Amino acid sequence: MENRAMASPWFRLLMIALSLGPVSALAVSDHASAVDPRIGTGGDGHTFPGATVPFGMIQLSPDTAVPDFKHAYKWAAGYQYNDPTIMGFSHTHFSGSGHSDLGDVLVMPIAGDVRLEPGDATQPGSGYRSRFSHDSEVVQAGYYAVTLSDYGVRAELTTGRRVGWHRYTFPTGKPAHVLLDLRPSIYDYPGKVLWANLRVHPDGTVTGCRTIRGWAPGRELCFAMRFSQPMTSRELYNRETDVVYKGFAGPGNQPEDHNAQNGRALVGVFDFGALKQPLEVKVAISSVNQANAIANLDQDGAGWDFDAHHAEATAAWNKALSVIDVDGTATQRTGFYTSLYHAMLAPTLSMDVNGEYRGPDHQVHHADGFEFYSSWSMWDVYRAEEPLMVLLRPDLSTQFVRSLIAAQQASPFGMLPVWSYQGLETWCMTGYHAVAVIADAYVKGVRGFDADQAMKAMVSTATYGDYGDLADYMKLGYVPIDKEVEGGSKTQEYAYDDWAIAQMARGMGKSDIAATFEKRAGNWRNVWDPKTGFMRAKLSNGQFREPFDPASAAYGSDYTEANAWQYSWYVPQDVAGLIAAFGGDAKFVSKLDRLFDAKVDPAIFKNVEDITGLIGWYAHGNEPSHHIAYLYDYAGAAWKTQQRLKQIMDSQYATRPDGLVGNDDLGQMSAWYVFTALGFYPVTPASDEYAIGRPFVPKAAIHLPNGHTFTVVADQLDDAHPYVGAVTLNGKPLDHVYLRHADILAGGELHFTMQAAPNKRWGEADAARPMAMSRYRQ
Length: 778
Hints:
Blueprint: H1 2-7, H2 9-18, H3 24-27, E1 61-63, E2 85-86, E3 88-90, E4 106-111, E5 130-131, E6 138-140, E7 143-148, E8 153-159, E9 163-169, E10 176-181, E11 193-200, E12 206-213, E13 217-227, E14 233-238, E15 243-248, E16 261-263, E17 266-273, E18 279-286, H4 290-300, H5 306-321, E19 324-327, H6 330-343, E20 348-349, E21 356-358, E22 364-366, E23 373-374, E24 376-377, H7 378-381, H8 385-392, H9 394-410, E25 419-421, E26 424-425, H10 434-443, H11 451-462, H12 470-476, H13 487-507, H14 511-520, E27 528-529, E28 534-535, H15 564-567, H16 575-582, H17 585-597, E29 614-615, E30 618-619, H18 638-652, H19 668-678, E31 680-681, E32 689-692, E33 699-703, E34 709-715, E35 723-729, E36 732-733, E37 738-740, H20 741-745, E38 748-755
Parallel strand pairs: 34-38
Antiparallel strand pairs: 1-3, 2-5, 4-10, 6-7, 7-8, 8-9, 9-18, 10-17, 11-12, 11-16, 12-13, 13-18, 14-15, 14-17, 19-33, 20-23, 21-22, 24-25, 25-26, 27-28, 29-30, 31-32, 32-37, 33-34, 35-36, 35-38
Helix pairs in contact: 2-5, 6-19, 8-9, 9-10, 9-11, 10-11, 10-13, 11-13, 13-14
């Protein structure tokens, strides 16, 4: 009995947790058990259900389809909850992206006859894909299991930081095979694979690389794979030329396949005969070369003990999630901890064990004294996901900022990442929001990186004239729509980013840089039209583009994935100035109410698939709307912020597979939830303030890296008491509707008393509003 208990994964989990150091007691609390990775796998959440560890290099998850490029939007993470079949398990995935790629190194266990094509999901047996039932799935943080019903194979997955672990239990008496397909890719299309190679080494290690012309053109991904049992034979196929190499060997005697297969359509089938015990498979990847993939496998994937690695993955998640202890109902805890889990998936480790990584110049670089991370959906994550990491994990923020600086130094254009992954740039979306990520970290006290190098990188990025027509922006003070699509929103985003640069420059004592970018931060006024009351794009001649319809939204219009109703609120650096432009508090609040209360036919956005989660014109499924509900705070109507937040939380989030109304966008949707559930939100990253909303959990204790704990408590938190009656900070009445970063770092208690009716006086005074509003009053 003692030996059996000591061999269990739960005993190992306890031992691992006890060895993790000063937060080990928190790690044993098992917050990971509250996580449901299925949330967001249906609808347009675009999350994946498979196994990964916090910010890990491997995301090992089932792929249910890889449709062609034109029809792949819903499969951006490779998996859709309502699909009936699984094609296999691949090792790289984005979490919640609107566009996609990856899906590298697809592996499928097969019992019995082997088919080399995936086949048609509507025709069972037409290919190697298999039917499955959700009843057979086990989906946990760091672990995924499913029964492939066509084969009777039980598949289990877990991961380390650089290694994916599979365990396949085959039915008795049937020959066991593992199929490796190097052709599929999420967002697939003919000719996407430019070249691939596949070989088997004498020790049975399988390696290969492939180069694809995907979202990041010319991306190369290599891998190394090993099996816990020796192969009895293998076949390496080139499906484009019909060339096949076959190898037969007994246990422990594997001849090497020298350049066994090269081409654009490679498939390997590895045979193991009738197995009497489960087959384990471990896979490591590298963006550099096969040798590095093998080194990653050697260092991070030693031995064969699936249960031990499962326990390690669970312990890693318990440690990561232990930064916040939340009380509440099972539904509240699942919603909160799943959101925190999703916020801790990206950016991802993109560096091999020897410190090498691929940079935006496609060259190999070495990280000296830091870990290199990539997967940067900057247009999204600068808003809340990265500020959440600054608050909870400033040690990781240091690594992230150093990674951004390193990427800029390797950029052929001197640009910080815009939307990059595995070190390569896609140039997707707008703005240069990496400057906001860096400035937010610096302003809030994160150090451990070279601030002068960072400032040089920020200025270089903001003055690269060939990017997004920055040349005209610097000359005219706006981006002309006849020169550049989405000129209205780009002007607004550049102006905010300029303000962020100025904040860091001011903090560093660089007054000349600060003055330059503070002036540029006012460029939002150049696209404000007081006649219509909306932000609008201008032509090079200084005239607004006509005709104008504030409801109009289309890709390539005046705005990025939005219309005038949604982008006209985007001046986070000067909300007071925006309120004045609207004509004062009353008119501003009235226009906000019209935004939320409008009767809108969702069909108006049928051609802009990213605009989802509508409440009137407000679109919570897309990031330009994320700060808007908090803007009532800035106009003296904090009770309306509370009202709108409840409306959003009730309608836009649920603990179901379709519980995210829009793309999670590498954690931004989930980070919004985490902040909002805690009761405050970073409307203006790179300031030291958080606008206060209202909490959605009865108690949350934030365990800060400095050893302090900041606790949020909400009395009478239920549907009958949706409004904030009174707030105290450390027992003293709080008369303003914002927190400073230092207030949180100091520790203590933020106490809300909730009530049925709104308290319309709290936060009404100018001085009580965020960003010290009274200083900006005209």
